[in-house]
Design brief:
It is built from two helices and two strands; from the N terminus they run H-H-E-E. The chain is mostly helical and 143 residues long. It folds into two domains: 91 residues, no CATH class; 51 residues, no CATH class. The chain has a two-stranded antiparallel sheet. The protein is elongated, with a radius of gyration of 35 Å. 4% of the residues are buried. The model has no long low-confidence stretch (mean pLDDT 87). It binds zinc ion. Zinc ion binds next to loops.
Length: 143
């Protein structure tokens, strides 16, 4: 009888240990989750600080940041180029004032009012006139 009591008590102690360990792990998991939340807040704020500093980079000239300023400016220029390309692919015009898309039929930008000239059509092959006395060289052809 004493033996069974000991075994029973040992099992109950083991399950208490397991329960304690599980509670401990749940507590750590909750604390880690709270740390992650605070880290996300820091990252968001630092991103906003970085954007503000970038926008005021002329006032915050810093040799340590110069390379990053240039990289960010290049990325902005590339975005502008890609947006122009999208407008071109869609067959629309781009406002020279604000860069927004303007339909081919509009003479003025609906957003900023800048006059948007209609681009000259690309010259067609038929439009190119070769004078009759021209000498035409064909590269890579044997003489
Ligand atoms: Zn505009």
């Amino acid at each position: 009888m004493d033996f069974f009591n000991k075994v029973g008590s040992s099992i109950s102690n083991k399950s208490k240990d397991v329960a304690k360990k599980a509670k401990e792990l749940a507590g750590i998991s909750s604390l880690n989750s709270q740390i992650n939340t605070q880290e996300e807040i820091i990252n968001k704020i630092c991103l906003e600080i970085g954007k503000t500093v970038y926008e005021k980079r002329d006032a915050f000239s810093d040799p340590e940041l110069e390379e990053k300023y240039t990289a960010a400016s290049n990325a902005h220029a590339e975005i502008a180029r890609l947006k122009s390309k999208i407008i071109f692919v869609k067959g629309a015009k781009q406002c020279p004032g604000c860069g927004n898309e303007v339909s081919l039929t509009s003479a003025f930008c609906p957003d900023c009012g800048t006059a948007v000239p209609t681009p000259e059509p690309e010259p067609q092959i038929e439009d190119i006139v070769i004078p009759p006395d021209s000498i035409i060289y064909y590269p890579n052809e044997p003489n």
